[in-house]
Amino acid sequence: MPLFLKKFYFILRHNPSRFFLVILLFFSSCGHEEENQNAFALEKEGRNAEALYIYTEILLADADNFFANKHAGMILSKSNESYLSALSHLEKARNINNTDNEVTLYLFELYLRSGNKKKTRKILKTTAKTAFNTILQQTHECVFGDLTKAKTAIKELEKTITADPLLVKIIAHCKNRTDLK
Fold first, then answer.
1. What DSSP designation does 64 have?
2. How many domains does the chain have?
3. Does residue 55 sit within a domain?
4. Which residues lie below 8 Å from residue 120, measured CB to CB, with a gap of 6+?
5. Phi and psi at residue 179, in whole multiples of 5°?
6. Is residue 39 within 8 Å of residue 51, measured between CB atoms?
7. Residue 153 falls inside a structural domain
8. Alpha-carbon gap, residue 151 to 135, rounded angstroms
9. 63-93: per-residue pLDDT in tens?
10. Has residue 132 been placed in a domain?
11. Is residue 171 a contact partner of residue 163, using CB atoms and an 8 Å limit?
């Protein structure tokens, strides 16, 4: 008999309550896939309040659920009143998976919105070897740099604007500087 089966049998025989607790925890952590997909479908239909409710329910059961944190943060980031909650969810998602570019872009936009130079620089350092770092670098320069560098950055950014609404929104932060209007 393999060793893992012997250990499994030993645990089952000598402490059945622990065994059932482990099984219960395993199945409860696996059960959010369908809920995430249902919430995502609602989000795609534009029913953000309902989707946010489901994501919140998922997070009550599993606070480290990457998908629920990411999408709750993305929904909340659309409101100026909820951007701190959005930051909380997106930062948690980034701590779980720091390679997700969409989370990084949303965080960068929220840090720009709040004027947080330190956090935007931190994102720039962590994304230094990625494809979209140039856009983030130019936007950071435009928002926080001097007027001459900002005008040059705007010209470069306008060349790279894509159909991605978030990138357009990030670039809009640059154009909205009072001394560049």
1. T
2. 1
3. no
4. 108, 111, 112, 136, 140, 143, 144
5. -85, 0
6. yes
7. yes
8. 14
9. 999 999 999 999 999 988 888 999 999 999 9
10. yes
11. no
pTM for the model stands at 0.71
Nearest in space to 173 (alpha carbons), one of 134, 145, 143, 152: 143
- CA nearest neighbour of 158 among 135, 179, 181: 135
| Long-range contact set of residues 114-120: C-beta below 8 Å, sequence gap at least 24 | 114/83, 114/87, 117/144, 120/144
Cα distance between residue 148 and residue 103, in whole Å? 30
Residues 6+ apart with CB under 8 A from 19: 11, 12
The answer to whether residue 15 sits within a structural domain is: no
At 65, list the tokens.
Answer: 């659920």
- Measured CA to CA, the distance from residue 17 to residue 180 in angstroms comes to 67
Q: Report yes or no: 51 and 71 within 8 Å, Cβ to Cβ.
A: yes
Residues 136 and 127: beta-carbon distance below 8 Å: yes
**What would the two tokens of residue 88 be?**
């909380």
Spell out the residues 6+ positions from residue 39 whose beta carbon is closer than 8 angstroms to its own: 50, 51, 54, 55, 58, 68, 71
Of 37, 25, 100, 23, nearest in space to 62 by CA = 25
Domain, as residue range, for 115? 100-176
Residue-wise pLDDT for 87-146, tens only, equals 999 999 999 998 888 898 899 889 988 888 899 888 888 877 766 677 777 777 777 777
Burial of 58 (0-12, 13-18, 19+ CB in 10 A): buried
